[in-house]
Amino acid sequence: MTKVRDIDARGTQHCETSALGVLLRHQGLDLSEPMLFGLGSGLSFIYWDGKNMGFPFLGGRVRPFDLTRNLAARLGLDLVVQETTSPRRAWENVAALIDAGHPVGLQLDSYHLDYFGSKVHFGGHVAAMYGYDDHDAYLVDTDQQGGAVSTSLTSLAQARAARGPMTARHRSFTLTVPGNPPSPDGRIVPAITACAGAFLDPPIANLGHRGIQKAGKLVPAWLQRTDDPRRDLPQAAMLMEKAGTGGALFRNLYRDFLAECVQVLDSDHLRTGHRLYSEAAILWTEAAALITKAGESGDAQCLEQAGTVLCELSRVEREAMEALSRLGGEPRRSSSARG
């Protein structure tokens, strides 16, 4: 058996930030999960309803692995990514790093992992691997999935080789913290303003605040969009609340990130953004509950109410991001400067 020493597998909520935390803590950089999510400009929104999809999907974050790239660039981390079409080479890439004492991030299709209770294909899942033996791989996943877990080498190979939406070619990656890393506190404003800019000016109407507004108009018709509302509507709501989002479609994580930032920076714009995202988090959970109720009862009025909540969310989040976008124009003041 080969295992990397001193792995900190603390409870986390979202898969990509969970893996990032493992890799960075192993090198002595310990940031909270909300801070990792926020510094990676992870918040977004997409209303996704492709021709081959059985039911629409509401997503609340940037595309898989964009958060990792953003965080690495913002903190000056050395991100090394390996991809290959060869299963043999893919295993050699990972085993060599673990043999040398380094945990490795992996992008996987969670459907194939032994420890996953919910068998749904998701090719953008990320976990940190820290060991292996002749039969199993040892991973750190979210608290919901068990934290420090194991899966057979066969299932791991299937999860890494899977093809389909959001999958990667046996992607593995490492992060190296430089000897004199920039202070995370100094990267807060660029991370927030970049996130706000993308959210306020999306390239298509399915994204950002425009996407939430579109969802508000389309969700009321969801009972006609499915032949099994008792299955599809509660599942859509579950993905918003419990599928590694931290609750409220990642808004709880972003709210908590902004709360940490308020302790560092003295800014009225930042406090406004935090207040509005606290409100948004409550509204997202309310919308998910209404969608679940509509699926269980068949009551179209619940979806009408959910649509109204989503239209309100579009306004709340737009106003929050407008306030946060102004951070770049403020003089820098630490919270300790308050009188």
From TrEMBL:
Residues 14-142 form the Butirosin biosynthesis protein H N-terminal domain. Pfam families: BtrH_N, DUF4872. Residues 155-324 form the DUF4872 domain. InterPro entries: BtrH_N, DUF4872. This is BtrH N-terminal domain-containing protein. It comes from Sphaerisporangium aureirubrum.
